[in-house]
Amino acid sequence: MSDSEEEECSDRQLKFVVLGDGTSGKTSLATRFAQEAFGKQYKQTIGLDFFLKRITLPGNVNVTLQVWDIGGQTIGGKMLDKYVYGAQAVLLVYDITNQQSFENLEDWYNVVKKVNEESETQPHVALVGNKIDLEHLRAVKVDKHLRFCQENHSSSHFVSAKTGDSVFLCFQRIAADLLDVKLNKAEIEQSQSVVKADIVNYSQDPVTRTVNSPRSSMCTIQ
């Protein structure tokens, strides 16, 4: 096997950190993506939960995503800085039916900025509005969501961890952006064939769980 073939076969690794208030659906989002499952009973994440999932992007680019699900009560915790450090992507998750969960993202984002203020490379920041299956109960207006994205140069995503709408697409788009892989319309539609067209337009494999989480090699319930 040539060096180029070995490089193509080897996995890239990306560290994704999921932040936001408790009950915003962070654990549900991570579980839906990594295990394609949804738990109906709320269970608070204490400290850190960890998931691994391997996906393949266009061009046969294999990438293993380390998804760090940070407990909502750790906003003032001593370990939070260490959890966020080294992340290539930060997902700021809120519940579209809960205005306060959106307002509190400012505190979470301030932590991210503090951790990375002296870093040469900044993580990809994604604003994720969860629970779009409850659109009729929406409390956070879309224009407020989009304003946050514009002001903080973050990508915009709307998902439902409960139904799975746009969840894989959210992680896929972020990973593709980080690795400079272009997704065409057909690939996006194929990855989310069960998602309604209006949801797609609206949002612009086995799993391992471990307690002692390794560092990335690349240096919720509703």
From TrEMBL:
Major enzyme class: hydrolase
Catalytic activity: GTP + H2O = GDP + phosphate + H(+)
Record localization: Cell membrane; Cytoplasm, Cytoskeleton, Cilium basal body; Nucleus
Record membrane topology: Lipid-anchor
Key words of the record: Acetylation, Cell membrane, Cell projection, Cytoplasm, Cytoskeleton, GTP-binding, Hydrolase, Lipoprotein, Magnesium, Membrane, Metal-binding, Methylation, Nucleotide-binding, Nucleus, Phosphoprotein, Prenylation
Keyword Cytoplasm recorded: yes
Entry GO CC: nucleus; plasma membrane
Cofactor: Mg(2+)
InterPro entries on file: P-loop_NTPase, Small_GTP-bd, Small_GTPase
Pfam family membership, one: Ras
Keyword Cell membrane belongs to the record: yes
GO molecular function, one term: G protein activity
E.C. numbers: 3.6.5.2
NCBIfam families linked: small_GTP
Protein family according to the UniProt entry: Belongs to the small GTPase superfamily. Rab family.
Summary of the function given for this chain in its UniProt record: The small GTPases Rab are key regulators of intracellular membrane trafficking, from the formation of transport vesicles to their fusion with membranes. Rabs cycle between an inactive GDP-bound form and an active GTP-bound form that is able to recruit to membranes different sets of downstream effectors directly responsible for vesicle formation, movement, tethering and fusion. RAB28 is required for shedding and phagocytosis of cone cell outer segments (OS) discs in the retina. Also participates in nuclear factor kappa-B p65/RELA nuclear transport in endothelial cells.
Protein name (Swiss-Prot/TrEMBL): Ras-related protein Rab-28
Lineage: Eukaryota, Metazoa, Chordata, Craniata, Vertebrata
Name of the gene encoding the protein in the UniProt record: RAB28
